[in-house]
Amino acid sequence: METINQFIAVFSNAWQQADLPFLIGFGLLFLTVWFLPSLLALVFNRQHLGKIALLNIPAGVSWIAWLALLVWAVTGKLSNRLATKARLKPVL
């Protein structure tokens, strides 16, 4: 318990000494990482951008859901190519 209290004290002391440019930079970095799947979907998977952006808001709390959205955002064009190839082959 002593270690946790020391950590909280050091963290709160560092947070109180932070200046405004640091806080703005930290906030921008935090939001960029949180919405990284949405930003990547803008580049790679525009077809599902709205769904990924909507799901990105609560998914930031869970690393597993955030990573799943990250994979979905990056593999958008790949899944379209695979689906096109699958349609060309006749199913017997």
Structural class: mainly alpha
What count of structural domains? 2
- Termini, distance in Å? 65 Å
User: Helix-strand pattern, N to C?
Assistant: HHHHHH
Mean pLDDT: 84
Query: What's the helix count?
Result: 6
Strand content: under 5%
Total beta strands: 0
Outline: elongated
List low-pLDDT spans.
none
Largest sheet: none
Classify the helix fraction into a percent range: over 70%
The radius of gyration is: 20 Å
Give a topology summary.
Blueprint: H1 2-17, H2 20-34, H3 36-44, H4 49-59, H5 63-74, H6 76-88
Helix pairs in contact: 3-4, 3-5, 4-5
Write up this protein.
The protein has 92 residues and is mainly alpha-helical. The chain folds into two domains: 1-33, no CATH class; 35-92, no CATH class. 83% of the residues lie in helices and 0% in strands. The chain is built from six helices and no strands. The radius of gyration is 20 Å and the shape is elongated. The model has no long low-confidence stretch (mean pLDDT 84).
Provide tags for this entry:
mainly alpha; 2 domains; about 85% helix; elongated
Short characterization:
Helix content is 83%, strand content 0%. It has 92 residues and is mainly alpha-helical.
